[in-house]
Amino acid sequence: MSETVRTRPDGSAQKPSEAYDTALLDLDGVVYAGGEAIEHAVESLGVARAGGMHLAYVTNNALRTPETVADHLTRLGVPAEPGDVITAAQAVARLIAEQVPAGSRVLVIGGEGLKVALRERGLEPVDSVDDDPAAVVQGYGGPELAWGRLAEATYAVARGVPWFASNTDLTIPTSRGISPGNGAAVEVVRMATGASPQVAGKPQPPMHRETILRTGARRPLVVGDRLDTDIEGAHVGGVDSLLVLTGVTTAAQLLAAEPKYRPTYVAADLRGLLVPQPEVVPVAAAEGRAEGFACGGWVASVRDGVLHLEGDGTDPLDGLRALCAAAWTEAGAGAGTADAEKALARLGLS
User: Fold this and answer.
1) Domain parsing of the chain, residue ranges
2) What CA–CA distance (Å, rounded) separates 347 from 34?
């Protein structure tokens, strides 16, 4: 049976915080950036929690332990326990433990989060290929990751040691801008060896499995800022998603998304959890306007390969939702290609 292709964001008469039992929240670019809380995040999560929504924090960043992340969130004003945090380190540790004997040594290229997760699975972290590891694993090691650590991974992979990676995010948002992520370090080893690792983190299935096992979510909503990890991960897991525009994804990238990157809902920030999602509806062609899509006083259409936006809506996000419907419908199962520069400029989203 062919898969249904999403051609517009969904509407919801219920607030997402009431329609879903658990929010599976990404951290970097959603809750905080560079360690500081993103505007409206603390207040919005507090209201969602008070209303009965379970909040779980799902991160591809394997550097920190769940305890450290929970402490950080609590200091920001978002009370959290270690059990509320699911990391790619935990997912990759489970993946490795399923493939090597209990008690095996694992060469770790990364931080404390990876070492703790491996020990929880009965594996022994080591620092050198000379320790005869049964596997090598890479996770984000922070800005201080030494070049020699990448060389150590290369030596192990070149010798045929099974290679795993917590995640392959090429970038990570910080308070100073976008910096290289674990995926950039993985690419160094890949180019040096010609090999490819088994990857556990979003959007791969091991991360979704780890999340569901640890949270027990029955109707989860993935909340993230990245199309290629958060939204694709939700797509792979067959669950709904909310994209917030507080991280790496731009409005233009959203309009150009192919089906696996198209979210169920779109919001400016985490306040989107607390309000019903407006419906995007088809509208018939009118004089001077092709068939299009309306949302909140805006009407979007595609004419001669260009996205057009008309109307007098007050919320730019409604205009963006209408533009998504027009662009995604035009693209079908492909990536959106319509020129959107003028339409986005009108919304202040270019």
Assistant:
1) 16-60+204-274, 89-198, 281-347
2) 27
